[in-house]
Amino acid sequence: MKQNEKSSKFVWFLLVIAVPAVFAVTVFGIVLSFMGVNVIEEAKNTGKKIPIVKNVLNDEAPAVAVSQNTEKQWKAKFDDQEDYIKILSADLQKKEKEVTALKSDIALLEKQVEDAETSVKADENEQLKKLYEAMSAKDAAAVMTEMNNNEVLGILTILEAETQAAILSKLDAKRAAELTVLMASNSL
To answer: Inter-axis angle of helices 161-170 and 149-158, to 10 degrees?
Structure first.
């Protein structure tokens, strides 16, 4: 019977005091969490003030130190990567400037080639002009009968008007008419 009394007092204690107390603490913790209080951190801080619990909670200090070392290592790696990115960015800007300079050099060289080609073409035209103006109109017309209209037109356009007229007069009338029409359409 004494055993029953002890166990019924214990059950009474659990049901009337312990269970409602645990429920109240849990509800209170949830309410504080919704209010923005870090309940777990506060419990740890409070537990550190209790001598026996303090020894249990101090075991986490080495883990915090390891975490801080890891964080420092990651920060160092991050800083190294940022430095490397800065170096690469500077290198990229330098290369872009070189590319721009090379493009301007290419444009200058292309202009020089174009000018040289124009100069050579002008020299060739001048020599061709001297050659046909030195020939008689009859001989020039005989040579031109063997050429197509585009070639003849190219030669006639560099010659003086008097030389053109003399050569056209020595060509077949039909061919002279075709060339005259082509010369007129090119001058428009």
So the answer is: 150
The pTM of the full predicted model, rounded to 2 decimals, is 0.43
Instruction: Name the residue among 175, 114, 125 with its Cα closest to residue 145.
Output: 175
CB 156 within 8 A of CB 179: yes
Q: Which of 174, 13, 60, 70 is nearest to 182 (CA)?
A: 174
CA distance 121 to 128: 10
Within its chain, how far is the Cα of 61 from the centroid?
48
**If we measure between CA atoms, which residue out of 149, 156, 140 comes closest to residue 174?**
149
* Residue 180 vs residues 78, 132, 145: alpha-carbon distances, Å: 80, 18, 15
The residue ranking higher by pLDDT, 2 or 148, is 148
